[in-house]
Amino acid sequence: MNEAAARGASILHRFRFRAMNTNIEIGLCCGEADIRNLEMRSRGWFENVESAFSRFWPGSELCRLNRSAGRSTLVSDNMLEVLLLAESYRKETEGAFNPFLLDALRNAGYDESFERMNTRKRLSGAVAPVSKVDDHPIEIDPGMRAVRLSPDTAADLGGIAKSWAVKRLVQWLRNKRKLTQGMVNAGGDLAVWDRRKRETEPWLVAVEHPWKPDSDAGVLVMTNGAAATSSRLGRRWMTERGPMHHLIDPRTMLPSDSDTVQCTVAGPDATACEVWAKSLCILGSEEGLTLFRRKAPAYEALLFTGNKQVFLAGAAESPVGKWSGIAIDRYC
To answer: What EC designation does it have (predicted)?
Structure first.
């Protein structure tokens, strides 16, 4: 998903920076005196989240947790919150979303940050299935803030932590700083809001075209809500077994080969959007949409399939916004 754009939003202050291996863009309706402080606080928030949840920083809290697999470990409030969310969504998606697939990711070749992987022409070594994850990969004691990963289990929380960081920052900006209008976009995981009562121009969120990287497939028109995009086409690399990508199917422990190559989900919660976008790419259009319609009635999904079909699934009247300029082949 490309950067969000707001027509007629000249009162917004915008700033950009890089964190969590992605580009962060934030637009806020605030006074000149506040903008530097808000930019500093926003940047610091994403940097703190990255330092805790990165699987590529040996000193991060996540890496320490992974090294303690098999033993009970005390975690921070933020780590506890994200782990509880991850486990909740793992159950809600009936296992399609599974944050405990780090060994499978490494086995497929994703063993360092994607920017560094791009410097290598081809990854060597066999790519074969690893053992499936335990049905109960984690034990959480919220009262004690204690977590125990099953032995030989490792978590990758990058995706859900990023969308959670967006959600938490938006809540702080809206509720604590009382900002009436804004947008936070972390590499396509985004949330927008407008609390003004008078009629305002909406946010226009560009949806990337999966087969034409330099153009958009259309826009999502929204005033309040969230959206996230997941794709099998972006983070890809070559191995001796051919191209690989980062969306691991927990049923095979290999990169998914479903018919869905890209999915954008829109709805009220940024984390749920990210989880369902990823799950639909893994499960595919038939199985994924059956589960999605049953479990996420407040959300909409735009799917692009490998045979270049475009499906739109969700409520007849969108609770978030409307899709514009997108050629839909089938409404589900």
So the answer is: 2.7.1.180
Rounded CA separation 99/117 (Å): 21
Rounded Cα distance, 164 and 81, in Å: 9
In whole angstroms, give the CA distance from residue 127 to residue 125.
Answer: 7
Of the candidates 185, 201, 183, the one whose C-alpha atom is nearest the C-alpha of residue 193 is 183
Which residues have a Cβ under 8 Å from the Cβ of 242 and sit 6 or more positions away? none
Q: What percent of the chain has pLDDT over 90?
A: 61
Q: What is the DSSP string of 91-153?
A: HHTTTSS-S--HHHHHHTT--S-HHHHTT-S-B-S-----PPPPSS-EEEETTTTEEEEPTT-
- pLDDT for position 122: 47
- Domain ranges in the chain are 52-149
**Cα 139 to Cα 152: distance, rounded to the nearest angstrom:** 14
Q: Are 93 and 279 in contact (CB under 8 A)?
A: yes
Cα of 6 vs its chain's centroid, Å: 22
- Cα separations in angstroms, 144 against 55, 75, 88, 139: 24, 9, 19, 12
For the chain, the residue count is: 332
Distances (CA, A) of 247 to 104, 109, 119, 271, 281: 10, 12, 21, 17, 8
Q: Is the pTM of this model over 0.85?
A: yes
pLDDT in tens, 243-301: 666 788 899 888 888 999 999 999 999 999 999 999 999 999 999 999 999 999 999 99
Instruction: For residue 202, give the amino acid letter.
Output: P
151 burial (CB, 10 Å; 0-12 / 13-18 / 19+) is exposed
CA distance 205 to 115: 26
